[in-house]
Amino acid sequence: MGAACATNVPGSPRTILACYDEHGIGRYFHDREDDDAPGLSKPNVRLFLRACHRLGVAPEDCVMVGDRIDNDIVPARTLGMPTVLLRTGRHRDQQPRSWDERPDAEVHDVPALEQAIYLLLHLEPPHPNAG
Question: What is the pTM of this model?
Answer without folding.
Answer: 0.77
